[in-house]
Amino acid sequence: MAREVELIVEDGTIVANANSFVTEANIVLHAKMRGITLPFTSDPEKDAVAILGIQAADYLRIMPWRGEVVDTEQTMPFPRKNMYTNPTFPEDQVPAAVIEAQYQLALIAYGGTILIPVSLGTGLLIKEKIGPIENVYSEKVGFNANGLPILPGVTALLYPWLLGDFDGFTPVGITSVGSGFYGS
Description:
The chain is α+β, with helices and mostly antiparallel strands. Helix content is 27%, strand content 11%. The strands form 3 sheets. Strands 1-2 form a two-stranded antiparallel sheet. The longest helix is centred in the N-terminal third of the chain and has 19 residues, at 43-61.
């Protein structure tokens, strides 16, 4: 069976038809380093990992980013120009925090969270049965005003690159071993 879904990685050079900042293999490695085993042997398993990456990228695409895309034809939200960050960020790169956020979002999606819900309930939809209709919502995770799940860890990574006070969550400063400093 041939692959049906594959990730095309945007590396900052405006790759045609890019749909991700990360590869399937790196999603699997990121998960493994956190004690999560993602099946990745058969083509359907590789497709499933690619779908997680695309779901994560879809979430990133709709964020309120600073600046503007470098090329109106690019399919991913980075690279960007006129972001007015301090220090300034090159217009031909993708921030490490955005890449890390895509890994985290892929694992959150693997855990069953619907990153872009199609309707709002009283909390995060954790179970849905189509006929007869049954919805179960988590009381642990809520939604922001835009209808997206509130994910403080992801927001902390993305905060320096987003417009305004996103989700009302302002990290004071978060460090990641070997990856530098995120936050304001």
